[in-house]
Amino acid sequence: MGRETIIAGNWKMYKTIDEAMEFVQALVPKVSGLEASVYLAVPFTAIRSAVGVSGDHIVIGAQNMHDVSEGAFTGEIAGRMLKEAGAHFVLLGHSERRQIFGEDSSLICKKLRRALEDGLRPVLCVGETFEQREAGQTEAVLQEQIKASLAGFEAHQLERLVLAYEPVWAIGTGRTATPEIAEEAHKICRSCVNELFGAELAEVLPILYGGSVKPANAQELMAQPDIDGVLVGGASLEVDSFAQIASAAPVTMS
Ligand code: PGA
After folding, report:
1. How far is the CA of 55 from the centre of ligand 1 (A)?
2. Centroid of ligand 1 to alpha carbon of 212 (angstroms)
3. Which atom of ligand 1 is nearest to the CA of 213?
4. Is 84 left (phi over 0), alpha (psi -120 to 50) or beta?
5. pLDDT digits (tens), the chain, 254 positions
6. CA 29: distance to chain centroid?
7. Ligand 1 pocket member 41 (CB < 6 A)
């Protein structure tokens, strides 16, 4: 059985409502014939407007959420608010959240549970730093992040999960992992999910690669057997480069 292919953009803290609408309107005709799913994680303020112009072709989501459904948490946002605004998915555990905002896997685990309860598809991001890779800890770090972020779940609860392998040293640096290095890490992630939850989930779980994905390298990355799509930061901010990356997706659905 083929796995779902997902081309996801992560806009981070870029684009106003008007810019987001203009982008989505320009992107729709460029991706409407594709078989791959096209996801865009936009700023909170742009979710509703982006959904309004995305039609059936682009899936709009958010980049973060709180782990409880409401409360006195100034400046935070709840999953059910995102859902109401029209978000279908949420990025969780992005390395910028882990490193700049101090999120750890146990918090990400709570957010993941809440996201599923709120009907949002979680895109769980994991990845090692340069120092960890140099020290030969990549496998252990990935396993630890996956295990701790998915603690307490059962396989049937994770049917909608998407995993994103994003080596921290490749994010925003122009230093993409080679297809071989990325594939090796994806295999580690998939076998970890297999060990924890069984082959049925591991075989269908989409695992995306993220970190300096560009039109020039997207195709060779997605040609790897365990790379089911990409999570794109910088190159998702321009319609043409993101559309080119989306067009590089292989047809894998059965
Ligand atoms: P990048 O970002 O494509 O700009 O490296 C990827 C990400 O942060 O998800």
Report:
1. 25
2. 6
3. 3
4. alpha
5. 589 999 999 999 999 999 999 999 999 999 998 999 999 999 999 999 999 999 888 999 999 999 999 999 999 999 999 999 999 999 999 999 999 999 999 999 999 999 999 999 999 999 999 999 999 999 999 999 999 999 999 999 999 999 999 999 999 999 999 999 999 999 999 999 999 999 999 999 999 999 999 999 999 999 999 999 999 999 999 999 999 999 999 875 44
6. 23
7. no
In 150-209, which residue ranges form alpha helices assigned H by DSSP? 179-197, 199-204
Tell me how far the alpha carbon of residue 71 lies from the centroid of ligand 1, in angstroms: 31
Would you call 128 a catalytic residue per the annotation? no
Q: Which residues of 4-30 are buried (b: 16+ CB within 10 A; e: fewer)?
A: ebbbbbbbbeebeeeebbebbeebbeb
- Annotated catalytic residue within 66, 88, 94, 186: 94
Q: Quick one: which atom of ligand 1 is closest to the CA of 170?
A: 5
Catalytic residue at 154? no
Is the minimum distance from the CB of 142 to ligand 1 under 6 angstroms? Answer: no
